[in-house]
Amino acid sequence: MKIATWNVNSVRTRLEQVVGWLQDNPIDVLCLQETKVVDESFPRSAFTDLNYQVYAFGQKSYNGVALISRSPLSDVNVGFGAVLPESVVGDLDEQKRVITGVLDGVRVVNLYVPNGSSVGSDKYLYKLHWLKVLREYLEVLLQQSQNLLVCGDFNVALEDLDIHDPKGREKQVMATDAERAALRHVLDLGLSDVFRKFNQEGGQFSWWDYRTGAFRRNAGWRIDHHYATPDLYERSIACTIDTAPRKLTQPSDHTPVIVELSLS
DNA sequence: ATGGCGAGAGGATCTCGA
Questions:
Q1: Site described as Important for catalytic activity, positions (predicted)?
Q2: Tell me, what CATH number does A180's domain have?
Q3: I need a surface site. Which of A3, A80, A192, A201 has the fewest CB within 10 A?
Q4: Rg (CA), chain A
């Protein structure tokens, strides 16, 4: 089973590239983030024409996640509110950042973690709170299934190895100790970074700023991740970053990360 | 320290991303 995560920065603007990539890479589930479109306007037919199923959870202008799956998914649900009480979720589901479904006994959780804007800002505090609630959310999912693949745009670089230039990173959003601690607390539930099982090198990134020619300089960050529960982690046989879409004209600033699981 | 670039909404120039 192959699953990919890709922050496309508007699925409508990127539609031709996403469909083209899917034709070249016929994977089982494609997890999209930053679709930036309400569900009624999601370009479904572009995917259903390729015999993929579409499950979308979007909003106007911002955020938005979707699952594009070759086979129908079971038990699809959206938002933290699907499993957590309103007293915990509050208004967090107003931003569409969570969608999940099950394929062949694997629960795929597709996340778009808040960016956090700048350290100490309201959005930064929102991000830290969101990660706290994420832990509670995954804790409930783990009671239902021992096979979780949690992927998406985490907007956190866990190690200095995941940043092209970690100098001054403690003042930099996506790399502060508080963000790393919040994500590690989530992972302490028993989730492991599949990419690092196969690759311990630096210089391996999934996002490059549009500005200052960052991609040409490989001045990137590895912030798009696949995390797996122990059995799935054991069964993972590859995890790769495909930089090809980032080289196209008018690209997303992120590129796909693909995981392969051997479930036989 | 600041801005660089790009998308969406709306119809000039904002907000937001990371």
A1: 224
A2: 3.60.10.10
A3: A201
A4: 17
